[in-house]
Structure formats: structure tokens, C-alpha cells
Amino acid sequence: MTAPRHYLVLPADWVRRYDVPEREPLTWTADHSSSSYGHGVMLDEDGHVLDGQTFRNLRDGIGCWIETDQPEKVCAALGLPQGEPGIRRSIETSTVV
To answer: What pLDDT is stored for residue 41 in this prediction?
Structure first.
């Protein structure tokens, strides 16, 4: 079984303009002081919490989205309703040879 995958994805024009990575891994954890009721929080690589309002600002301001294999878990962690625009289900598979 592979670990869940969650990524904040930046639009291509933003990546080119600012020479930043296209995908930033996000980590879900319930072991953070900002987590409540077991919903957990989403952390970026530097350990900063991504909350729902910040995500909406990024989505509406520059066109970011989140790709995840667990959109319901991400919505709960961000405090957003299921089906929130910009939180996309992605199923990545890896082949073992």
C-alpha cells in the first residue's frame, strides 16, 4: 500500500515566471496543534499549515489547485465542503518491475 499523495499544483505561467516547482507536496497530519476533532491539517514542506482561506486565495488569485487521492480528507483538513472547486482527485500508479 502506498502513502496518500497530496500536492499543491501551481499553474504553468506562474512556474515559468517565478522559476518555482510545479508541484509542492503536502502532508496530512492530526499531530499538530492546529488539528481539531481528528480532521488533521495539511502542511507544506516547510511545516506551514495550509488552511481553507489560504487555499481559496491561491486558487482564485493565481489558479492553484490540489491534486490528491483523498479529496474528502483534504477538504476536512482545510475546513472546506466536499466538492470544493480546485481540489481534484488524482490517482497515481507506480509500476514495480
So the answer is: 86
